[in-house]
Design brief:
With about 325 residues, the chain is of the alpha/beta class. The chain is about 50% helix and about 10% strand. It is elongated.
């Protein structure tokens, strides 16, 4: 029987966390509550009022962010030989009762990592603030480029589950410790070619205040997504493998860049000399752009189709 652990990062959730803990189903063996130097002393509140013997409180002396709290919980779960580790938030926006939906595909050998998708059912969006809808849609688009998971949506969703054998392969100390944690997890999973599956999930929004501003995140996350995109392309197409798409990733952008620079240069020269460019010059500027654009589209098409299909934990777990 698989040993299931739940990690709950706790920060300014004193009023909601006990209700969350009471709703965790019996299928879960251990619950790690990580008090991330919470000013409300959520960890102490749990120890004093929660009688569930499955609950362990881990405490940070200094605030490390949600990612830092999760890394602490992940390491403890691996140390205790958990097979599947689930992440839920402590603010009551996630229903612990549906944890079996997240661990099911992993236990059945269909996925390495599962995550919630609040956009799966349009009716789920009725309770979501409009700013979050547009913000998450924008972040989801950026996430597809940076992670390679073109069929995954709602990347900032914090309701997740992961197989321990896959988690052991991840560089936990390198994962972003802030609110970019979930997106960075997907990037790291993408470099491992782990199988990720979305789980339909409805979030519940009450009077609790989110510590993350979606409008700010769209801008602050952009740099991280751009960096991860280039790192992923280099690793996937030039380090681990080299194929036709690798050549397209080189020639496509290079031809577009040459065409843009050459074309702008010729345009500036014609303006300065008040002369028209010859047909040959126009073709020399336009043709590389057209070819480069086609090569780039071809590389993107290959990238979209190049999704991992075999769960990684089935490949790395020794036969019993």
């Amino acid at each position: 029987m698989a040993k299931i652990a739940v990690v709950i990062p706790c920060y300014k959730s004193r009023d909601q966390v006990l209700d969350v803990l009471s709703a965790v189903p019996d299928a879960v063996n251990t619950i790690y509550c990580v008090d991330d130097a919470c000013p409300d002393k959520t960890g102490e509140h749990i120890q004093e009022n929660c009688k569930d013997k499955r609950v362990q409180v881990l405490t940070h002396e200094k605030n490390q962010g949600v990612g830092g709290a999760m890394v602490t919980g992940y390491k403890k779960a691996l140390e205790d030989n958990a097979d599947i580790i689930v992440k839920i938030d402590s603010d009551g926006q996630m229903d612990p009762a549906i944890i079996p939906l997240y661990i099911g595909p992993i236990m059945q050998g269909h996925a390495d990592y599962t995550k919630g998708n609040r956009f799966y059912n349009p009716e789920f969006l009725e309770t979501m603030p409009k700013t979050r809808i547009f913000g998450n849609a924008g972040l989801s688009f950026l996430n597809k480029f940076s992670t390679g998971y073109w069929r995954v949506f709602d990347p900032t969703n914090g309701y997740t589950a992961i197989h321990a054998d896959v988690l052991k392969l991840m560089p936990l100390d390198k994962i972003n410790k802030g609110y970019f944690f979930e997106s960075d997890m997907l990037f790291r999973l993408g470099t491992l070619r782990a199988v990720v599956r979305d789980i339909p999930q409805q979030a519940f929004y009450g009077e609790e205040e989110s510590n993350l501003s979606i409008s700010h995140a769209v801008y602050s996350f952009a740099g991280n997504h751009i960096r991860n995109f280039f790192k992923r392309i280099v690793y996937s197409y030039f380090v681990r493998d080299f194929q036709v798409a690798s050549i397209e990733w080189i020639l496509g952008p290079a031809l577009i860049l040459f065409s843009t620079i050459f074309g702008l240069g010729q345009w500036a020269e014609s303006v300065e000399n008040q002369s028209e460019a010859s047909a040959g010059t126009v073709m020399l500027a336009a043709l590389p752009f057209i070819v480069g654009f086609q090569l780039t589209l071809s590389a993107l098409h290959f990238d979209i189709q190049n999704q991992p299909k075999t769960p990684l934990h089935l490949l790395v777990r020794p036969a019993s």
